[in-house]
């Protein structure tokens, strides 16, 4: 399942996107703080087959945080966590840190082997 975080300033529009490669096509649900989100004033959810988008028309401080996209079909369930955050706020799901750590480890081993 693919997802993409969004860094959006207050007052702008935001779109959180979620993709699930599934056959048969999945049904999507969105959650924030364990509460299901439905399309309402200022929030719109659009599903396109294996793709779902949660749109916020006017971001406020209350919109920032962790969202969960859940895709289900008769064969199973999968979910992804996405973050909506203000510019300048660091939100990381750990992948960047892990990648940087692996490169540092590789550089250290190379240095030991070649006696830098």
TrEMBL record:
Keyword annotations of the record: Disulfide bond, Glycoprotein, Signal
Q: Name one GO biological process term.
A: synapse organization
| A molecular function GO annotation | axon guidance receptor activity
Keyword Signal attributed:
yes
- Tell me the Gene3D superfamilies matching this sequence: Immunoglobulins
One Pfam annotation reads I-set
InterPro entries noted in UniProt: Cell_Adh-Cytoskel_Orgn, Ig-like_dom, Ig-like_dom_sf, Ig-like_fold, Ig_I-set, Ig_sub, Ig_sub2
Keyword Disulfide bond among UniProt keywords: yes
Q: Which SUPFAM superfamilies does the annotation name?
A: Immunoglobulin
What cellular-component terms does GO give this entry?
Answer: axon; neuronal cell body; plasma membrane
Alphabetical list of PANTHER family matching this protein: CONTACTIN 5, IG-LIKE DOMAIN-CONTAINING PROTEIN
The family note in this entry says: Belongs to the immunoglobulin superfamily. IgLON family.
- This protein is called what? Limbic system-associated membrane protein
């Amino acid at each position: 399942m693919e997802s993409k975080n969004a860094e959006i300033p207050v007052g702008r529009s935001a779109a959180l996107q979620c993709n699930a490669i599934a056959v048969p096509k999945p049904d999507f649900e969105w959650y924030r703080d364990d509460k299901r989100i439905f399309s309402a004033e200022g929030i719109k959810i659009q599903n396109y087959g294996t793709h779902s988008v949660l749109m916020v028309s006017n971001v406020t401080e209350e919109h920032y945080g962790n969202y969960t996209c859940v895709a289900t079909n008769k064969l199973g369930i999968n979910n992804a966590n996405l973050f909506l955050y203000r510019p300048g706020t660091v939100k990381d799901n750990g992948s960047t840190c892990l990648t940087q750590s692996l490169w540092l480890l590789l550089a250290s081993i190379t240095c030991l082997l070649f006696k830098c």
